[in-house]
Design brief:
about 210 residues, mainly alpha, Four Helix Bundle (Hemerythrin (Met), subunit A), 6 helices
Length: about 210
């Protein structure tokens, strides 16, 4: 059974335990999928309303896109767990001889790369989701605008969390060129996401307060 198919209380019990997975990466995937689901809810509440019939074709397109994002982010929970397993095993490899150390270093290099790639790919998905949520907040039903805002907030939290899961692995990489490239992309995504999320969230907040 995929991790995301478990009941939420089972997932959270696993998250609260000393088991290596699910961990922070899985939590970010779940929060990101929740953000996408909130976007879909706003779209569902907007569909078929006469007031929004001019944007109905775009709403229909967004429903398809947001549904795919939700599934991709759910799948990223298991992707993160799968990427961590080889790293966990690498830490336990013997280091008694030079050959052992060389073998362990090679396995560790691959494991660290994969363990950093999974949350980085998740961040790319979250950036796309943030852009979709921003648009949804502009054309979706005003009765559900707060839910679009919650989705944006969830998206930002998941992005910030996933960034730390990249950094904890790149920090240990001996290939500093790869580590620096991955860190640089993380910083770019955060900057791009904040430029989308913060104005959209603030606009919703101002609208709800009637300012």
């Amino acid at each position: 059974m995929a991790m995301y198919e478990k009941k939420i209380n089972v997932f959270l019990e696993g998250l609260a335990s000393d088991a290596p997975v699910p961990g922070g990466g899985g939590a970010c995937g779940l929060v990101g999928a929740t953000a996408a689901a909130l976007g879909s809810m706003v779209l569902s509440l907007t569909t078929g309303k006469k007031k929004y019939e001019a944007v109905q074709p775009e709403i229909d397109e967004l429903i398809q896109k947001m549904g795919k994002q939700r599934i991709r982010l759910l799948n990223s929970i298991d992707r993160d767990a799968e990427a961590f397993q080889p790293l966990s095993e690498a830490y336990g490899m013997p280091r008694e001889t030079p050959e052992d150390i060389e073998r362990r270093d090679a396995v560790m290099a691959r494991a660290l790369r994969d363990a950093a790639t999974a949350p980085l790919e998740m961040m790319e998905l979250l950036l796309e989701t943030a852009a979709l949520l921003s648009r949804i907040s502009e054309i979706g039903s005003m009765l559900a605008i707060s839910d679009a805002g919650v989705g944006l907030a969830c998206c930002r939290a998941a992005l910030y969390g996933a960034s730390l899961n990249v950094f904890i692995n790149t920090k240990l990489m001996k290939d500093r060129t790869l580590a620096d490239d991955m860190n640089r992309r993380v910083d770019e995504i955060i900057k791009e996401a904040d430029a989308i999320i913060v104005p959209a969230y603030n606009a919703i907040s101002v609208n709800l307060k009637g300012e």
